[in-house]
Design a protein that fits this description.
It is built from two helices and 19 strands.
Length: about 250
């Protein structure tokens, strides 16, 4: 019965991993720029007994889904959504990281930052605006400002170009490491410039379908419970067999 226990236990562990992943996806449905994860299973032939023909499921890999999320339009002139592949570049204490979250804010000293306080990088380095200035962003990610002292309205000629958001892509997205708070570590990937359009006044929503995810979670929970029932049944049979032998 060892083969049966091993098969059921392996299946239960795989389903537990899937539950954790799907639950995390659901928890981030409202997180802008969030990219869902997908568990890929593989069928493994039991090897405890060379003559065994039963198979069990194991987690082969965890894949990141980088498909485009829908847009949510806001009134914040510093909000930005990427319309295609690529990432914003932000500066953290651990170095440059990548992000799809375009909910930016102006710090008191004019530095452009993320909601977590990381500096947003432009083509010339960390982007700095004039505190209190009116800001406009175009579809190329260029940031223009009109200082309040000029008394001019945005788009009337009194504005100046400050910088352009640094948007990059990587050759091997599977090499990216999720670090939480919407950040990705590029790992060994080279950061490649990419001409992805930027949608101002908008945020990219999570690319997780909550209804589909809930359906998957229910199916995985049922499979997990079935594996556990199988384990208990096998253990019960083993106890009976041991009692009869005794």
């Amino acid at each position: 019965m060892a083969d049966g226990i091993y098969t059921a236990l392996s299946g239960a562990v795989a389903q537990q991993t899937a539950m954790d992943v799907i639950s995390n996806n659901l928890a981030n449905v409202s997180t802008s720029g969030y990219k869902g994860d997908q568990v890929v299973f593989k069928e493994v032939l039991a090897t405890v007994n060379p003559d065994a023909t039963n198979v069990h499921s194991e987690v082969a890999e965890l894949r990141h889904d980088f498909s485009q999320g829908q847009l949510h339009y806001t009134k914040n002139p510093l909000d930005a959504a990427l319309m295609g592949p690529g990432f914003f570049v932000v500066d953290t204490p651990q170095g440059e990281k990548l992000s799809r979250q375009g909910s930016f804010r102006m710090r008191g000293d004019g530095m452009l930052q993320t909601v977590d306080g990381h500096l947003v990088m432009g083509q010339k380095g960390a982007i700095r605006l004039e505190p209190g200035a009116k800001v406009r962003m175009d579809s190329y990610g260029a940031l223009f400002q009109t200082p309040q002292s000029q008394g001019s309205q945005v788009g009337t000629g009194g504005e100046t170009l400050v910088d352009r958001l640094r948007v990059v892509d990587v050759a091997k997205p599977e090499g990216l490491r999720r670090e939480g708070h919407g950040l990705w570590d590029p790992g060994d990937n080279e950061l490649l410039p990419v001409a992805t359009a930027v949608e101002p006044l908008a945020l990219e929503q999570a690319n997780v379908n909550p209804i589909k995810a809930m359906t998957q979670l229910i199916a995985v929970q049922r499979a997990y419970e079935q594996y556990n029932r199988t384990i208990e049944q096998i253990r019960s049979l083993e106890q009976k067999a041991t009692g009869q032998l005794g």
